[in-house]
Amino acid sequence: ATSMAHMVVARVSSAPCKAPGSRRSAVRAQSKAQQEADLRQTVAIVGAGIAGLASAVSLERQGYQCLVLERSETRREGGTAIALWKNAWRALDYLGVGDELRNGNHPELDSVELCAAEGGVLKRFSFDECNGGPHEFRGVFRKELLRALESKLEQTEIRYGVGVERVTTTETETGGVVLRTESGEEMRCLAAVGSNGASSGLCGLPPTNYAGYRAIRGVANFEGEMPLPSSTVRQVLGRGMRAGMYPISDREVYWFVCFNWAEGDGPPMEGALEAFRSWGHGVREVIEATAVEDMVASSIRDRWQSPLAPVGRGNLTLAGDALHPMTPNLGQGGCCALEDAVVLGRRLGGAAGGEGVAAALRSYEAERLRRTLKLTVRAGVMGSLLQIDNPLVTAARDAVVSRAFDPSSFLDHTNYDCREA
Q1: Which pairing describes strands 65-70 and 157-160: parallel, antiparallel, or unpaired?
Q2: H-helix or E-strand containing 398?
Q3: DSSP string, 251-291
Q4: Taking the C-alpha atoms of 44, 96, 110 and 213 in order, what is their torsion angle to the nearest 10 degrees?
Q5: CA 151 – CA 421 distance, rounded (Å)
Q6: At what angle do helices 353-386 and 333-349 cross, to 10 degrees?
Q7: Using CA of residue 140, residue 143, residue 146, residue 152, what is the dihedral sign?
Q8: pLDDT along the chain (421 residues), means of 10
Q9: CA angle 94, 95, 99 (to 5 degrees)
């Protein structure tokens, strides 16, 4: 059996992250045969990120026993913040953590500023000008979201330090899957959900595609006045470069910069940021108010996954970035992972028997990819346009944004309600 040094049992009444080894005596009292029998009725979730923990919460609501397997030794505490739009809050309310996060000192933002790196504000508009209101947008620390989701798990076991090497489906009447861990252990479960990121190889999907640019993200802390209004999302557009920021508390501002770069290793952090230090609109201030060790750099990638192409097989499926990696230009990657969890639970809630589980998973995949392919393409095209470095084209872009941009459809993609899918 997997070493109990890596076992954590999450319960609502427990602390957010129990010490390794909790409930050892109870587990040891179970026979190996009993443990194996229990797993055969369990949904294994590979990855304890947003998609993984949200899926566990959603499946628990439908009466499923879940087992979450996380490769890292401890709960994920890294990353910066996540943008949560109206569609994500609908999912969070369904999962039971919406109000808890709303009460966490995260201001609700209500307007957007689009600025020129070498000029002034090109366009300022309110969310009230966008179709489908009222809208809701807040930024939340990723680690805070993970803790909130974990706190809702009453029966789900989370095992840290367990990487999954592969998942195979079985050909029995009731279906099922066999997971093989990196340590060589095999687990037979009812079903498996791969939520282990964009590079997941569990279903053999094509690799992601590099979008041609990189991003650096961080959270700046201000003791005094912040460099932008407390209710505003700001984007600053340059030539082959751009930046963005928004407050996530009364003292903290989430920010990002994007810059064109050939595929491969990125430049040193300080060198990449140097060109942005001369920018106005608060860009210089947020960079200088963030320690380099607290910044996160990454290449921007996506995959345009058709809903007509096969994804999972048998009782195996994917969720989150493993299913639909997209560029961050719409702020929808994490939002869609939360939607995945709700739709997955609702589909499996109506499944009966092994064949019912497999059919429910195919229905879930088709629904989610119909939704996310459009977002992935839109985000990818938007990113390509925003990263253009031709000065004539960027001058024309700025003129169009300033004089002709209509924000009415700016948030159309957030009107989706996963609770009805």
Answers
A1: parallel
A2: helix 391-403
A3: SEEEEEEEEE--SSSPPPHHHHHHTTTT-TTTHHHHHHTS-
A4: -10
A5: 26
A6: 160
A7: negative
A8: 33 35 40 64 97 98 97 88 97 98 94 96 98 97 96 96 96 82 96 97 97 97 94 97 97 97 89 94 97 93 94 96 98 98 96 80 97 98 96 96 97 97 91
A9: 80
Whole-angstrom distance, CA of residue 326 vs CA of residue 372: 9
Residue 349: count of CB within 10 angstroms of its CB: 14
For position 174, what pLDDT does the model report? 65
Q: Assign residue 49 a region: left if phi > 0, alpha if psi is -120 to 50, beta otherwise?
A: beta
Q: What's the CA gap between 130 and 123, in Å, rounded?
A: 14
CB 226 within 8 Å of CB 246: no
Angle at 19 between CA 17 and CA 193, to 5 degrees: 55
Distance set, CA 373 to CA 212, 321, 327 (Å): 20, 12, 12
Instruction: Report phi then psi at 262, rounded to 5.
Output: -65, 150
Number of neighbours of residue 181 by Cβ within 10 angstroms: 19
The predicted structure's pLDDT at residue 30:
53
Beta bridge partners of 73: none
Other C-beta atoms closer than 10 Å to the C-beta of 140 total 22
Q: Comparing C-alpha atoms, which of 83, 108, 143 is closest to residue 333?
A: 83
Report the sign of the C-alpha dihedral through residues 270, 295, 413, 51, in that order. Answer: positive
> Residue 233 and residue 121: Cα distance in Å, rounded?
12
CB 135 within 8 A of CB 90: no
- Torsion sign across C-alpha atoms 54, 55, 61, 67: negative
pLDDT given at position 9: 34
> What residue type is assigned to position 363 of the chain?
S
Other Cβ atoms closer than 10 A to 342: 25
Question: How big is the CA angle at 210 (ends 220 and 112), to the nearest 5 degrees?
Answer: 40
Distance (Å, whole) CA 151 – CA 163: 23
Burial class of residue 57 (count of CB atoms within 10 Å of its CB; 0-12, 13-18, 19+): buried
